[in-house]
Amino acid sequence: MILRTLALDTSWGSLTVAGGSRAGEGTLILLPQLRLGLEGGRPHRALAPMNTVLVSHGHMDHIGGLGYWASQRYLNSMGPGTVIAPVAIADQLRALLETLAQLEGGRPYDVTVDPVADGDQRPLRPDVELDFFATDHWVPTLGCRVIWRTQRLLASLAGLSGEEIAQRRRAGLPVTDERRVNLLAYCADSGPGLFATSPEVLAAEVLLIECSFYRPGDRGRATRFGHMHLEDLLAVADRLQCRHLVLLHASRRQRLREVDRFLDEQLRPQLPCALHHLMVDWE
Length: 283
Ligand SMILES: [Zn+2]
Ligand SMILES: [Zn+2]
Prior knowledge:
The protein is an alpha/beta fold.
């Protein structure tokens, strides 16, 4: 399966987001420039080079490729990897990976499981941080924001020449401060309660969010299982500040052709931003 690939214009530059997603069958999202996987829901060759993988919760469509990821990294000497997962499932994931390595008869995989909770932050690299937030699903689930930390010239120095700024720098005076850019928010599996508990996701430049259900008759199903219905996204369309809205996780009750039609006819006309999706038929 060839993953769908988006090149998204952001203030960081062109951000590549590749992936595929279907409720119950697998969600796999890759940010190759950051070596970051958001979910490891399916085995895929493109997953192995991701040094860090966020597992938002323990459902099979989000962990089904994790053993493959760890094994491929071990077989190909790709170095240590990190799985970031909610505290509630971290021990079980660690045990699962230990068991898989034992079944293969080799040494333990070179993987660390890092437990995180709502409100935690982790550095991904010096200029990129991950902030985690709880979502509105029926098991403990965490989404994450990708924050780009960049330096900008102090506003008070805006009129100075390059030489004057260099003099200040040589004198040890501050010339920049940090700007924290809300680059991307990945909202994992979630119902609309997320918009009340973490409204900052609506301000991310790239918003990756599920939309499992589309037909009016599936409203109750979405609420029961903690998933988003198209109506939930229509309800927040005028609050979106993103440049790019990327939808994930359509139920198999919905053909992709129908999903495209629902999006074209109902959602796209209401949006102030570009609309994309990474939904695929895996087989
Ligand atoms: Zn799911
Ligand atoms: Zn789930």
